[in-house]
Amino acid sequence: MSMALRARTGRHRQLYDDHLRLVAGCIPYKMKQFVEEDGGDLISRLEILMISSPNRQDLVFPKGGWENDETVGEAACREALEEAGVRGIISEKELGEWKFRSKSRQESCCSSTEGTCKGYMFALEVTEELDNWPEKSSHERRWVSVRDAWRLCRYDWMREALAAFVRALSGDAALPSNELSEPSSWCFTERAIGTLC
Question: Which stretches make up the Nudix hydrolase domain (predicted)?
Answer without folding.
Answer: 19-166
